[in-house]
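name: query_chain
kind: protein
chains: 1
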Amino acid sequence: MRYLCIITGFNTLEMNQVLFLKEMKRHAVSLVIWMTVITILISVTMSVYQPFMENQSKVLGMLSLIPKGALQFKGISNISDLSSPLGFYAINNVIYMMVLGSIFAIVTSSGILLKEEYNKTAEYLLTRPVTRGEVFLTKLAVMSLNVLLINVVTSLAGFISLEIVKKTGFSIGSFLILSLYTFLLNYFFGAAGLLLSTVVRRPKPITTSSIGLVLIFYFIYTVSKITESVSKLGYLSPFRYVDLNVVNAGYKADPLNIAFFLVLSSLMVGASYRIYLRKDIYT
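structure:
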């Protein structure tokens, strides 16, 4: 390999760096747009907290008239949680950071490998002095960094919003645990997107089906909370393994839930890697 790099004038490590930077630039605009949209949604929603607290009795009275199922669909299990700044944040976090963040992760990961095939650039890429394994690991690093960045930025926006609107203190530890759950959930769907892209036979975008997968899992989770008879169905959804009960004094990271995300994400990434090494690449 060393002699091959000297003859061709390329260094394998440099090729990985070049590919990494190229992919980061390619995804930069999308990343900034998603971060901006989610940050704005969080900021606007949290700005409502102070007016909500000023009219708390009236708002809670109106919410009590809404069917419990409708409230649970929005992520509100206990309307009293809205009185806490962190509880208010967590309820809205379900839609903005968990659902939208997961959609970003799976859309990014499902296209990062597959687009080389349907854009007819796979042949050029794989003729460079870089192995399939290096291509996969480099693109995995790009996906991972994108998911990490969007979580860091949006969590920071959430923390700043909480600091601005809070009238009472909130647990920073609980906030960090919720942020960790959000990251693990997003990365789970990122890993799922990689796996989907490697098992697809025809080289075509799978954005719609990827988004649909996130929404289906969220729907299953929501239905399981609304309908007692199908509550166990919720265990099929990764959203079930995110603990949102941040107002609980004993709130902490559940080792089994953390293990669920780490193990399944690792298995999906590992399976994607093995499949990609053996896959017939359309050129």
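note: The radius of gyration is 21 Å.
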